[in-house]
Amino acid sequence: MIRRANELEQFDKVMFGGPGAPHFTKVLNEGEFENRGRLYNHVLLRPGDAIGVHRHNKEFEVYFILKGEAVYNDNGTEVVVRAGDMTLCPSGEEHGIRNDGPNDVEMMALILFADK
After folding, report:
1. Mean pLDDT of 83-102
2. pLDDT(116) > 80
3. What SS3 string covers the chain?
4. Is 29's pLDDT higher than 80?
5. Pairing relation of β-strands 50-55 and 105-113?
């Protein structure tokens, strides 16, 4: 299967009470995970955008930073992440990310189901 760029679903959405409305492009749609996950998106955080702190249960989420610099909240500890960095939020833990800088941040977000 090939899905052309102009066929990918795109939307802006406030996430978990974070400021702004990050821009999402769905790489995979519901039903395309073969029961192994639920989200694979390209995410654009414009200056001031954030995905608020939230918990994952029975699933884990990976962010892979493609471009820019953001502040990642890892269970209450804030750390700067940059292009090339990966973050992992295991089942039962919390995370969030925000763009405090003047430039866009681009990242991939993947949520897969945990065996726990």
Report:
1. 98
2. no
3. CCCCHHHCCEEECCECCCCCCCEEEECCCCCCCCCCEEEEEEEEECCCCEEEEEECCCEEEEEEEEECEEEEEECCEEEEEECCCEEEECCCCEEEEECCCCCCEEEEEEEEECCC
4. yes
5. unpaired
User: Which pTM was predicted?
Assistant: 0.95
Buried/exposed 30-54: b ≥16 CB within 10 Å, e otherwise: eeeeeeebebbbbbbbeeebbbebe
Residue 57, classified by CB atoms within 10 Å of its CB into exposed (0-12), middle (13-18) or buried (19+), is exposed
Q: Where are the domains of the chain?
A: 10-67+79-113
Q: What is the pLDDT of residues 31-78, one digit of tens each?
A: 999 999 999 999 999 999 999 999 999 999 999 999 999 999 999 999
Domain boundaries 10-67+79-113, corresponding CATH code? 2.60.120.10
**Is residue 115 over pLDDT 70?**
yes
